[in-house]
Amino acid sequence: MLSTKAFRLFITGVFTFSSFAVLAQNQAEVWLTKADRSVLFARQATNLSFTATKNNSPIITVNDKETYQSIDGFGYALTGGSAQHIIKMSAPARAALLKELFATDGNNIGVSYIRLSIGASDLNEKVFSYNDLPGGQTDLMQAKFDLGPDKVDVIPVMKEILAINPKLKIMGSPWSPPLWMKTTYDARGGMLKPEYYDAYTKYFVRYVQEMQKEGIPIDAITVQNEPLHPGNNPSLLMVAPDQALFVKKFLGPAFAKANIKTKIIVYDHNADRPDYPITILDDPEAKKYIDGSAFHLYGGNIEALSDVHNAHPDKNIYFSEQMVVEQPDAKDIKIVNPVRRLIIGATRNWSKNVLEWNLAADPENKPYTDRGGCSMCQGAVTIDKDAYSRNLAYYSIAHASKFVRPGAVRIATNDLTDLPNVAFKTPDGKHVLIVANSGKNANTFNIVFNGKTLVATLDKGSVATYIW
Which string of DSSP letters, residue by residue, matches 3-22? Predict the structure, then answer.
């Protein structure tokens, strides 16, 4: 909306594009979610204006002269179960859902990063790998490698997503190697037999190459999902010394030899064990092949990500998984919690991305594997035939994904106890500030940028994204 002064300039012909640019920088667009669900990630009709006015309210100072890490994106895991539900939708319904999730125009939320499971995760209907063999058989050269099950749902869904956003970043993570490579012929637990390190390396190489042939570029892989949690189905125990050995003697050299540019990321587990990635990165022979470390937050404190960054500031930090759930009939939406802990917490502690778990499930949170699959893992969207509803994970990611596009850089802000926040400068020169009101009351506060002040108010339990 033009101010009265700007309108007069416009109708008299004095108003220029440079005038409009200055005006745009003096106003902030606001997207809001309220705890009582009266507003759910909606653009507010009136922009807020920066002025020279000062008051006594708390201040969030945004300083784009002080920069931190660049951002790769925000999104979810596209589990096999997610893809199974999406592919069964009618073509028009599926197209509408995927556009809302992955396009950036209008009210679409612009998801820019996806995590895939290499083989099955615990949110597949059944356990599989890409080289399943009867007990006693082996395939050291991966001659029988086949993306088989993923060709039915994950791959066709990914092709439709990439048609909407060809620049989408994709991370692949294995839950278990083929059973014949393990110390126990069981999808749950066990360890990778040393004599199959080379065969498993070839398995990773084939995965990246075969997905590329399908038109699906894998930007990064993690070596093992939750390597210290062997009770999931599927899963694998992989201690830090073994992961270091696997990377430096097998996976790293094999990727280099095959000219594979896919990033290698270690750990991929909770923030309570920063020693795991640090000890691997302390090994210079392993470190030279590693892009960074990935984290979950089912244990530990998000600040541990900064501990790893400080120990090895030349290596990247990623946030690869967190389950975010709510009761389907919940009166309030507790959006402050995931935004404060993940969107704000992970990025303020150097993470280049934030991924929540997972993209889609049905009203019963199915499918999931038996003997250890997750029966409470709600999707960002719940799909019921062609209908879908949006859940807490949808809204929490949306507040960042739509505006903080890949290539954005985190910039400095002061963090207030009741108003946790984080800010970014986007590739097109815009500024994005995400604020959550975690206090017990509504909060009025000042956003100060380049000597000018914008006065904003947030109800308790609300989250807002400000863009200027």
Answer: -HHHHHHHHTT---HHHHHH
Burial status of residue 106 (CB atoms within 10 A of its CB: 0-12, 13-18, 19 or more): exposed
The count of C-alpha atoms lying within 13 angstroms of the C-alpha of 460, restricted to the half-sphere facing its C-beta, is 4
- The conformational region for residue 136 under phi > 0 = left, psi -120 to 50 = alpha, else beta, is left
Q: Could you tell me where the DSSP H helices lie in 316-442?
A: 336-338, 345-348, 392-401
pLDDT of residue 24: 54
Residues 6+ apart with CB under 8 A from 38: none
CA-closest candidate to residue 159, choices 228, 216, 92 = 216
pLDDT confidence band for 243 (50 / 70 / 90) = very high
Whether pLDDT at 124 is above 90: yes
HSE-up (13 A, CA, CB side) for residue 355: 29
Could you tell me the pTM of the whole model? 0.94
Residue 6 has pLDDT above 70, yes or no: no
Q: List CB contacts of 231: < 8 A, sequence separation 6 or more.
A: 188, 189, 372
Residue 408 near residue 422, CB atoms below 8 Å: no
Residue 114 near residue 171 (C-beta atoms within 8 A): yes
Residues 6 or more apart whose Cβ sits within 8 Å of residue 295: 267, 268, 269, 270, 271, 304, 305, 317, 318, 319, 320, 346, 351
45 band by pLDDT with thresholds 50, 70 and 90:
very high
End-to-end CA gap in the chain: 14
Q: Is the pLDDT of residue 10 over 50?
A: no
Q: Which domains does the chain have, with CATH numbers?
A: 29-68+411-467 (2.60.40.1180), 72-406 (3.20.20.80)
Q: Return the amino acid letter for 428.
A: D
Give the tokens for residue 110. Answer: 């612009």
Condensed to tens digits (0 to 9), the pLDDT of residues 141-168 reads: 999 999 999 999 999 999 999 999 999 9
Query: Residue 81: what pLDDT?
Result: 97
Within 10 angstroms of residue 183's Cβ, the number of other Cβ atoms is 14
* Alpha carbon distance 81, 352 (integer Å): 26
- Residue 423 and residue 434: Cα distance in Å, rounded? 6
Euclidean distance between CA atoms 415 and 58, whole angstroms:
11
| 278 contact partners, CB below 8 Å, separation of at least 6 | 307, 308, 311, 312
Report whether 105 contacts 97 (CB < 8 A).
Answer: no
What is the rounded distance in angstroms from the CA atom of residue 227 to the CA atom of residue 243? 9
